[in-house]
Structures are given as C-alpha cells and as structure tokens.
Amino acid sequence: MKDPVLSILIPVYNEVENLPELGAELSAVLAKLELPSEVVLVDDGSTDGSYAAIAALCREHPGFKGVRLGRNVGQTAALSAGIERARGELIACLDADMQNDARDLPRLIAKLREGYDVVSGWRKDRKDSFLNRRLPSMLANALISRITGVRLHDYGCTLKLYRAKYLKPLRLYGEMHRFVPAFAGFLGARIAELAVNHRPRTKGASKYGIMRTFKVLLDLLTVKFMDEYMGKPIYLFGGGGCAMMALGCAAAGFTLYRKFHDRVFVKDQPLFQISIFFALVGFQLILLGLLAEILIRVYFDIKDKPPYFVAESVGFD
C-alpha cells in the first residue's frame, strides 16, 4: 500500500452503536477520493466494546487502524495519540458520533488546495439544543476569536483539515483540542472556514455538558499566555509587578502629602499599609517573572526546541 496522503483521526469513546455505519460511510467517501488514505481510530478507554468494533472495522476495511488507550484521558489526549501515529501530509479530524458528515471531506480538501493550511468546519445549521449546547458555544466562539485573534464561527466543530506540518509540532494537554486552529494560526497558518453538514445524534449519548463552557474560559487564559508571553513571561509578570509597585509608590506619596500638608499622622492613614502591600506584591511578581524566564530557557534547552517554527525552506538537503 502507498504511503497515505490523507490521515483521518477519529477519537472514540463509547460509540459502539455508531462505528459500523461510520466505517461504511468513510470507506465509500475514500473510495471516491482516489487518494492514498488511512483512518486512525483512537479508543479513549471505552467501556461498551468500542475497541472490538474498531478491530472489526480494521479487518473489514483496508487502511483502517485502531489504537486503544489504557483509560479515558479525554479528547485532547486521544487526538494527540492519533497525530503522533498519522503518516499523511494532510490530517483530518472528525467525531465518531455520526453528527459530522464524512462526505464533506472532499470539499475540505478542495478548499485547502486553494492555498490554505487549515480548513475548519462550521456547523452553520447545527442540530443540537439551543440553550445548553448552541448558546454556550456561540459565546465561547466569540470570546476565543476575540482573545486569540483567529476568528472562527465554530471552534467546537471537530471536522477540520490540517496540513500535518502545523499539527506535528504541537504538544496538546488538558482540553486544548478546541484551540488547535488558534495554535496553528500562531505558527502562521492560513486558515479558512467552510460550512459543513451537521446531523442530529440518533444513537448513543452525548459526552459533553454545560461544564465544558467553564473549562473553555480557564483554558483560554493558558492559550493567551502561550501566544503572547510564552517566550517572554517577564513582560506579563514584570509588567504587572511594575504597575503594582507604581501604585504603592503613589499611595505612599499621597500619605506623605497628607502628613506634611494636612497634618494627618501616618498611623491614622490605612493607605500607608496598602502602599506597602502593593510594593511587596509588585516585587514578588517581578521575581516570579524572572523565575519564569529561567524556566522557559531551561524548557527550550532540554527539549532542544527552538522558539520558532519553520513553515518552508528551499535549497536544503
């Protein structure tokens, strides 16, 4: 078999009812694509026999491959396991619940070939409940787009297509899978968005709840830090520390002014204690920034990882 050009990654968690239909649909789509492909299904610690169904698909369909994780560790880790094993220069991701339509893959590939590095699916006509799924998602997408500067309507849609060179360098942890387009954008990827079909779930149960929205807000702080301050954390901590110390000096100066001008003793002004507090916190933030600078340099040295990403080169062996 030829080396695959397209790798399709599918995280699976308790979707045994959907897997046979998913395998049949994907096989039909890939047969029409006439593109060397592989399908990597990652079982994220399922307890309903999903891995046995994955093994059956691998026997039935050429190019299907299965990976079983020891326990449920979340969609981000499952995608990371798939990315590490994917061999194609193009990597597509989709869900196993049959709500994503595999027949959209040719359209994503055609869009990518227009000169893009990432094509993100947009569930424009989403078939989920409004109050606990679509509304939180709309708010989260608007916030993520505003903070990261990578504007997408639907960060939560798993159906996306990437050039592998923008996925392979990433190290994904926690629940960071939804921010992958933003990370690719930080590397300079050209990103497009394409409206895709979205189908209602007919089998199995959703694994997402309203708590996911709160996780997004917390993860967004990490993403913002990694984008703007990962290479120079002193700018964040040191800037905050200098601001706190400036406030402390201003408060102390006002205290002295009141002492000499209004004859108000320092012991009668609580603002003096506040100025000391601001000065101490500011000093600690500056020290924290210096420690973070040291840790970042140790990180890059140990990982032998440069603080940049090379998108293309020419004339090298």
Primary descriptors:
Spore Coat Polysaccharide Biosynthesis Protein SpsA, Chain A, 317 residues, alpha/beta, elongated, single chain, 2 domains, seven-stranded mixed beta sheet, 7 strands
Describe the structure.
With 317 residues, this protein is an alpha/beta fold. It folds into two domains: 6-228, Spore Coat Polysaccharide Biosynthesis Protein SpsA, Chain A; 234-303. Helices cover 47% and strands 12% of the residues. It has nine helices and seven strands. It has helices at 19-33, 50-60, 75-85, 105-112, 130-148, 180-186, 211-228, 234-261, 271-303; strands at residues 6-12, 37-43, 64-68, 90-93, 118-122, 160-163, 191-195. A seven-stranded mixed beta sheet has the order 3-2-1-4-6-5-7, sandwiched between helices. Strand 2 (37-43), helix 2 (50-60) and strand 3 (64-68) form a beta-alpha-beta unit. Helix 5 (130-148) packs parallel to helix 7 (211-228) and helix 8 packs antiparallel against helix 9 (271-303). The longest helix has 33 residues, at 271-303. It is elongated and about 90 Å long. The model has no long low-confidence stretch (mean pLDDT 85).
